[in-house]
Each structure stands twice: as structure tokens, then as C-alpha cells.
Amino acid sequence: MTELKERRQKAIAELIREHALASQEEVASRLVSLGFEVTQATVSRDLEQLGALKVRRDGVTSYALPDRTGANGGSPSRLAAVLHDWVHTIDVAATIVVLKTPPGTGHLVGVALDESPFPEIVGTICGDDTIFAACRSAADALRLAATLRDLGR
């Protein structure tokens, strides 16, 4: 990573932690005010690389970083909090556990699952409000779904 890119991404992380920024344009505008020359494409890539997510809290949508959403670290208590706060339903479809979340929070839950110690999970695919957790067998999927439901209560 270049020094400029590293400084820019650190600045973006600080901005997200300090301000409720709802759009890439807001992030770019703040960066320009700090002396960075950026394009929307650069800001988009930086946000993706930082793992920034749009989350809705108290009716306001803004960017958050995984360390501010409870999705970093693989501890069961963090996963339990993420499941409790963000997952509406957990269903099984053959060897896939399907988790439904509010719009914009699928990635947050997916990161928490990816960092979890469940050997049943082969991999995850995250959308805006849906996560597919692929398991090796239907029995693994049923077991994982039950465990996640219990953990999220």
C-alpha cells in the first residue's frame, strides 16, 4: 500500500468514527477539505477495503467500520450480540443456512460469521440483507442454524 493511500484510508476511518457520513460524496468532500485529491471511485474502493458498512441506527443511515459494529473478533459474545441485534430470521435450505437482516447489514453479519469458529461453515455469501452460510452437509446446516438461533436469543 502506498503511503498516500494509507494516510487517506486512515483519514477516512477517523472521519467515519467522528461523523455520521451517509454517502461517498460526503466522505469525498471531507477528504478534499483535509487536502486529499480524490474521485468517487477512489473513495468507493477505500471504503470497500476498510470494510465500511452502511448501517441504520436510530433512523439514520451512515457508514460504520467493523470495529464500531461489533463484528470484529470472533468471540461468541460478539457474535451473539450481532445475531441478536441484526438477524431477523434463520432458515435452512438443504446445506445452506439463510440469515435475513435489515437492509444494509448483511455484510456486518457475514463478517461476524466469517470470524466465528464454526467448522460447519465452509463459506459465506453476503448480500444487502441476506447471508448464505454454506455447510458441508444438511445435518451441519441444521446444527448450525439451531446453534445460531440459541446464540442470538
Polypeptide structure, described:
By secondary structure, the chain is of the alpha+beta class. It folds into 2 domains: 3-65, Orthogonal Bundle (Arc Repressor Mutant, subunit A), CATH 1.10.10.10; 70-151, Gyrase A, domain 2, CATH 3.30.1360. Helix content is 49%, strand content 21%. Strands 3-4-6-5 form a 4-stranded antiparallel β-sheet, covered by helices on one side. A two-stranded antiparallel ribbon has the order 1-2. The longest helix is centred in the N-terminal third of the chain and has 16 residues, at 3-18. It is elongated, with a radius of gyration of 17 Å. Residues 68-74 have low confidence and may be disordered.
Structure at a glance:
This protein is α+β, with helices and mostly antiparallel strands. Helix content is 49%, strand content 21%.
